[in-house]
Amino acid sequence: MPKAIEFKIPCENRPGTLAHIARILGDAKVNIFALLTTTAGAEGAVQCIVDQPQKARKALTEAGLAYKETPVLHIKLPNVPCALARFTQKLADKDINITCGYQTATKGARKAAVVLAVSDLDQAARVR
Q1: Do domains 3-70 and 71-125 have the same CATH topology?
Q2: Domain positions in the chain
Q3: Which of 39, 47, 80, 88 is the most buried (most CB within 10 A)?
Q4: Would you state the pLDDT for residue 98?
C-alpha cells in the first residue's frame, strides 16, 4: 500500500540529535524506512517513515519527544531517468499538489523509494 505515516520530530540542531532519536526507535525495535533531516538556525526536525508506527508512537512518547504525524505517499519508482518526472506529472495532471518530498536509491538499484506529502492522498495513492 502506498500510504504511510510520517513522523516529524522537532529537535535541536546539535551533534548527536539524530543519533538520540534513532537510538530511541532502534531500542524499541522500530526500523526506519525513510528519513529526512532539516535545520534552520538552532532548530531542526527529523521526518521519518517507520515499519511499526504504534511502537514508534510509544517510544517517542515515553522518551518525552514531541512529534507530529502526517499521512504521506510512500512509493517505489523505477530507478531510471525521468521516472520521477513522469509520476509527478501524473499528480499535477490531477491537480494534486506536492508540499514535501524526498527520494533515495543506491547506484544499480532497480527501484527508488519516494516519499511525498500531497494535497489529496487518496487520489494520489491510485495514480500509476
Answers
A1: no
A2: 3-70, 71-125
A3: 47
A4: 98
What class has domain 71-125?
alpha beta
Distance CA 96, CA 77 (A): 18
The CA radius of gyration of the chain, in Å to the nearest whole number, is 16
- C-alpha 91/C-alpha 125 separation (Å) is 10
The grid coordinates listed for 38 are 532539516
Residues of the chain with pLDDT under 50: none
| 48 burial type by CB count under 10 A (0-12 exposed, 13-18 middle, 19+ buried) | buried
Q: Which three cell numbers stand for residue 88?
A: 509527478
Q: What is the 3-state secondary structure (H, E, C) of the chain?
A: CCEEEEEEEEEECCCCHHHHHHHHHHHCCCCEEEEEEEEECCEEEEEEEECCHHHHHHHHHHCCCCCEEEEEEEEEEECCCCHHHHHHHHHHHCCCCEEEEEEECCCCCCEEEEEEEECCHHHHHCCC
Domain 3-70 has CATH 3.30.2130.10: yes
